[in-house]
Amino acid sequence: MRKQIAAANWKxxxxxxxxxxxxxxxxxTEYHLSSNQAVIFAVPAIYIPLAVxxxxxxxxxxxxxxxxxxxxxxxxxxxxxxxxFASVGVHHIILGHSERREYFAESDSELAExxxxxxxxxxxxxxxxxxxxxxxEAGTQNSFVEAxxxxxxxxxxxxxxxxxxxxxxxxxxIGTGKTATSEQAQEIHAYIRSVFAAHYGQNIADQIxxxxxxxxxxxxxxxxxxxxxxxxxxxxxxxxxxTEFAAIINALKS
Length: 254
Ligand code: 13P
Known about the structure:
By secondary structure, this protein is α/β, with parallel strands linked by helices. Helices cover 43% and strands 15% of the residues. The chain contains twelve helices and eight strands. The structure holds 1,3-dihydroxyacetonephosphate (13P).
């Protein structure tokens, strides 16, 4: 069965003290993870040593970076290479979040390079896609998302693409309190899987975890995650609240 994943995207939130306390409280909470389930904490880069110290060695719990540079090293002031994250124990990296596409002008071709860079060192990209409200209102979300996937990922070989986690995050549902209905999520997740199936074959497509993101919370997670093509969630705001995120973890399919 595909990996079922609850991923916390803290974005640019929390002080060091708050981060420390949130991780402690979560670790003290009742959560159950089976071998095909994982929890990932995408923390601000500066808190990675803290997260490593608290979470390293905990079964099925991983730490992620929220971005990386596409080059292995060099004169790129302020940037961090995928290999640098790996060297401190971080092997998952979120790529192409809509906030990075919008505020930092990340393009599909840059994301293709970043994805290759992450895979090249054996780490796992969590590749984000998703449409703005205008596209959803025009009813062209499938072709919009398909283009994002094709432009950034289709140069990757079949044995590498199975290592990529996809996060579908409709921009109109991020931080707005508006969630896609479970039917809307299932419909586009199934479409995303069919896009991979058409290019790589059904067997490969069936192995790719596709997470939903956009106002996931304790109260809607069970229903959304129960959809057959939804393999967990990428969670922003609710991942900063202990009781919410613990409930979201427990809503994963087993
Ligand atoms: P919210 O859960 O706050 O809507 O954010 C979703 C998101 O962008 C996760 O990457």
